[in-house]
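Why show two proteins at once? Because comparison is the fastest way to build intuition. When a single record is shown, students tend to memorize it. When two are placed side by side, the eye starts asking what differs. So, the first record is below.
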Amino acid sequence: MSTTRCYYEVLSVERSASGDEIKRSYRRLAMKFHPDRNPGDEEAEKSFKECAEAYEVLSDPDRRGRYDQFGHEGLRSTPGHDFNRMNPDDIFSMFNDIFGGGGGGRGRARRGPVRGYDLETQIEIELEEVLEGTTREVEFRRLDVCETCEGNGAKPGTRPVKCPTCEGVGKVEQAGLGGMFRMVVACPNCRGRGEVVTDHCGDCRGAGRISVKRTLEVRVPAGISHGQVIRVQGEGEPPRPEDLPEGNGPRGDLHVVVGVEEHDRFQRDGNDLVTVVPVAFAQAALGATLEVPLLEGGLVELEIEAGTQHGEIHRIPGHGCPRLRGGDRGELVTVLQLVVPRKLNEDQRNLLSKYAETEELEINDAEPSLWTRIKDSFS
């Protein structure tokens, strides 16, 4: 293993990150550093390989456990891949299930049409919008086929020529394990295409793809939770130039990660909403009908019995969040909070003093000090 940086630092995740969080972060970074998006950038290719190495370890529970306990030393006896000797295309194809897109060099066996890359973006909605659903306008950038060169990267009027490294095959042999065996990998010069561009297109600079800004409206369904993903089919990127220069294969998808903002009064717990309801001492002692605010606006009545205690929980059905795939709403969970008055008038003090006498409770009968009365007059 060549990487010496902390794998969690490489993938920008906490040590407590779940498998899904690690997968999501790797996908984002791999898209960012993929050589297709950074042609000729050695630092980006190095970062791409580093992320792939980190993900291979952290996505495996056994290897992650050894790494957490012993660090890089714990992986030295563990078989793995040498990512520094591998072509970026081969690394990317190893995680095809993550991206749901095409990968690998020319000549690699495939089932079905070559598919493009998925993209990811984020939106924020308010908790109130979870009740009915909403729409958001999403703006993002993606790579599209260059219309000038029709995706082949060559200047109009010219054509790519046969790759001198692989002689047009798109594959080369590479020694492995100290020369004990040889393996076939995508040609590093033409990246598996079998052709190279000598006279580059002026618009895409030979990449065959250009970055474009796209805006679309995304429907957010009612009941969605923080961190859930909406998949918009066909709004990702086309297949890579080395797979299909003209880009006429199926596009990848756009993954929209939804964030739900925190609310100052309500907290979500699954499909339930939790809120704190203040209760006066007299109401708790004698019983009362309380009016509880709802997330969507308005009030609902809550009956509490005499002798209600601080911290009691009452559930009101049908006033929580809707279920994502339909059905009844969850519950509104009310947590009662006993409110003790900070100051009393003379009548209130006398009444409470009499109550304390009936309970044989020891209380402070002293009159408030001058300083206390001054502070109370300004509060």
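Second record. Ask yourself what differs from the first in the token line.
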Amino acid sequence: MLRLIFSAAFRPFFLLAGLFACVSIVLWLTSFFGIYSLLPGGSNPITWHSHEMLFGLVGAAIGGFIFTAVASWTGRPPIHGAPLVAMALCWFMGRIVMSLSAYLSPWLVATLDLSYLILVLLVLARELYLAGNRRNYILLAVIGILLLCNLLYHLTAFTALPGDQWGTRGATMTIILLISVIGGRVIPAFSRNWFVLNQIQSPSPTEPNRFDFATIGCTLILIPLWLFIPSHFVTGILLLVAALLHAIRVSRWQGLNTWREPLLLVLHVGYCWIPIGFLLIGVAVLMQQPVSGGIHALTVGAMTTMIMAVSSRAALGHTGRTPSSSPVLTSAFILITMSALLRVLASQSNLAMLIWGAGLFWLVAFLCYLYAVLPLLIQPRVGELGVE
């Protein structure tokens, strides 16, 4: 079974992401509310939570997606075997040392935690270079920025350097940039193909053009602004501009006409959380209010929904199944949307009940996700040995 799991990147990394989503929310809720701290050594649950959601959960999903997609982009054989094992082990060791950080040397924690993204960057660079695929060099820049953000997190967390949230702030905007780039490729393409295949009477999603580049450029500019001057009115104004641009962009992809296929509709829903998050953060910055609601719209809303949607579609497609949702998988999509809504509302009201509700919806959503996707990740592709 291990040989099968490490035969393609989507198998180990989407499996790790789903399992970690379940484990981490239990660790977070019990520690945050002081019921019983499962984080040893008195680790700060808020700091741990923000880091692990970005570099743990999202980090695993990025590895699964990129190294599955890069084979299609480059025409090279899929990454498998030893490189995948090495990256998965580095990711796993990162999660262990982050949970035990109070007992370990800060430099050991940083080294092991950073090793995963370093390997991802090196393996991706090798694949793109050997294929001469310059078009996707932007992904090297995005992964490189994410690696620097993680380094910033460790430098500010374990040294006297200022800027205790630089790493997580930078990572948040970098991941949103990645979703903007990748989402702008796959969402309109998947929608267009589905309309044609099912003979749906709908205007075709708009092809990428200068407007899309302007939207991505605005998002790119937000990274240094959100990193260094998050409370400045210029940052607030640009966040509102970005919200408008992303809202117009997603509206051109005809998402409402995909309602018959939840596996496609959820991609549009996930992307819609980006303008919602930017709007909430922009308004909060201009009014000098907490930005937690907007941050959770981007993280629980956009990032987690897109992880669940893209990984489900990839698991179905790359194992020879029809990319169509099941009742259990659709339930997972609904539950994660409810989790995001409750978490955003909790940030505005500080009601503990809403945080509990968001956490429980999250947990059940990922349990449903694993129930639907786990068999696909640990079984051979349809038509191969062992599958009829």
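One difference worth noting in the second protein: The mean pLDDT is 91.
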